[in-house]
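I would like you to sit down with the pair of lines that follows and say whether tokens and residues agree.
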Amino acid sequence: MARLPIQSSRGSTVVIDGREFDYFGGCGYLGLAQHPRVIEALVAGAQQHGVSSGAARETTGNALVHDELERDLARHLRCEAAVLLPEGATANLAAAQALALDHSLALIDERSHPSLFDAAQAAKLEVRSIPHGDSSALRAELERAGTQRAVVVTDSVFPSRGEIAPLAEWASLAAEHGGTLLVDDCHGTGVIGPHGLGALEHAALSGPHVLLTSTLSKALGCYGGFVAGDAKWIELIRTRSNAYLATTPVPPAIAEAARVALDVAFGSPERVGRLRANIALMRSGLERLGMPTPREELPVFAFQHGDAEAMRALEANLRDAGVLAPYIRYPGGPPEGFFRIVVNAAHSLTQIERLIELLERHAGSSR
């Protein structure tokens, strides 16, 4: 499928070629990119700061709001400290550069995001892949490492697989062998944990043997990346990581918007609760149709429905009915492609029920 030129977006709808569609794609899980308070903060921030930070933070590019946002992130995620990076992949590189100062080996879940492998290699760590979610294989590699200090690396959430990594077990294994767990929480922040705070809350992780990276661009609806965890690692990033020292930070206006997004997301249970209600509705509808659902309560519903030709036909039928439910091909996924349907907190019950009705209608007509 060709890239779709989206003309405008309203969280649960998009306009393409002048036509509005109910939108079930993307990663804006909490529907915050179009939230009125977030947009107001962005506009006010642009009027106050302009568009760009203009320089690296340790020269003249630091704004008060950068410091405030870092404190907000640490407070909300209940960890000692956080540091902003330009985006999620750079956050992974900054974390790897800090960890490489006293680790020499990276043991990475084979299904983890490619940027984690790239970061470890760029930081000159020896890289070994671990079979997906295999704790026994991880233990064997840690024992094999001997005196090498290892970073154990994984995504928190594997969205298209509907899985959450065995974070508590892997953190324990890393600590037992004198290493550190590095968790990419890009698809977990705002989604998992009792209050949606992400991987640290979900697995009750804390302390010097855990470091977390994540993004402001998915559930939080803004832009940028961050690293959060023990203060010693954050200080090493500030003083020793070129990915931090030599890059221009997110524009202050975006940081202003992100502060408000954090407050909307985690200041009350309403937003996360709405997302979870929509997940439950979508899950129950697909289960009623006999279609696959994720193992965990996650907002991404990835599945195949017939062969490639049948899936292209279904996508076209949905688009004819005004619904954009993406059929995609993605690196590492099945060659024939799959549907990646996402619900977010901005979807109405009517939108979700209509999608389920259309899927049911298609299933009936294809029998």
Observations:
- The longest strand covers residues 150-155.
- The chain has a mean pLDDT of 96.
